[in-house]
Design brief:
Radius of gyration: 17 Å
Protein name: LuxR family two component transcriptional regulator
CATH architecture of the largest domain: 3-Layer(aba) Sandwich
Structural class: alpha/beta
Shape: globular
Oligomer: single chain
InterPro entries: CheY-like_superfamily, NreC/VraR/RcsB-like_REC, Sig_transdc_resp-reg_C-effctor, Sig_transdc_resp-reg_receiver, Tscrpt_reg_LuxR_C, WalR-like
GO molecular function: DNA binding
Distance between the termini: 41 Å
Keywords: DNA-binding, Phosphoprotein, Transcription, Transcription regulation
Order of helices and strands: EHEHEHEHEHHHHHH
Number of strands: 5
Pfam families: GerE, Response_reg
């Protein structure tokens, strides 16, 4: 199945480069390009892409505002899914974008393999949480966010354990090894967590875990 991609960036050379790279993959197709957030909102509604590569800082309407508009009313599990593009690894807007429903972020200087892999990962319903840089970003910005009372939204103790490990950036396989569970069992727990908490994906689960006090920023514990 071909993944339909919308590329959004105010620099033409960046849009062209990303589009050429993605169009060169047999399972990826760039269905549109936008130079600002307002164009992105219009094209996302008209083209209904599977994945949107969204620059953070743009004229007319920035990537964060555009992401909020595009994802407003989109149910968990539905497309499009947004990958934020940023030049800086600790961009304050990225944290807000995760809260708005973005599925993760990618640095603009990422390698071609990292870019294509990111699109495939997000299209499959996962989030870009594996790199340590993502964990650092979430932890750093969680420190300045108001922490809610420690609660797990009606999750079972085992689901809370899984949520805590998701927040630490572990994959389903790693969680299965840590908790001595079958990987399919972990997948079931993750699905139930997202449903109970009304979250789009693992990216929002990470943000929720920090804000709800399920896991604390800083050293692992």
């Amino acid at each position: 199945m071909t993944v339909r991609v919308l590329v959004v960036d105010d620099q033409e050379i960046v849009r062209a480069g990303f589009s050429a790279l993605l169009d060169g993959q047999p399972d990826l197709e760039v269905v549109g390009q936008a130079s600002n957030g307002a164009e992105a909102v219009e094209l996302a509604d008209r083209l209904v892409p599977d994945v949107i590569l969204m620059d953070v800082r743009m004229p007319v309407l920035d990537g964060l505002a555009a992401t909020r508009q595009i994802l407003a009313g989109v149910a968990p599990g539905e497309t499009p899914r947004v990958i934020m593009l940023t030049t800086f690894d600790l961009d304050e807007y990225v944290y807000d974008a995760l809260r708005a429903g973005a599925s993760g972020f990618l640095l603009k200087h990422s390698s071609p393999d990292e870019l294509t892999a990111a699109v495939r990962v997000v299209a499959a319903g996962d989030a870009l949480l594996a790199p340590s840089i993502t964990r650092r970003l979430v932890e750093d910005f969680a420190k300045v966010q108001p922490v809610l009372p420690a609660t797990a939204g009606g999750l079972t103790p085992r689901e809370t354990d899984v949520l805590r490990l998701i927040a630490r950036g572990q994959s389903n396989r790693e969680i299965a090894a840590t908790l001595v569970l079958a990987e399919q069992t972990v997948k079931t727990h993750v699905s139930r967590i997202l449903t109970k908490l009304d979250l789009r994906d693992r990216a929002q689960a990470v943000v929720y875990a920090y804000e709800a006090g399920v896991v604390a920023p800083g050293p692992r514990r």
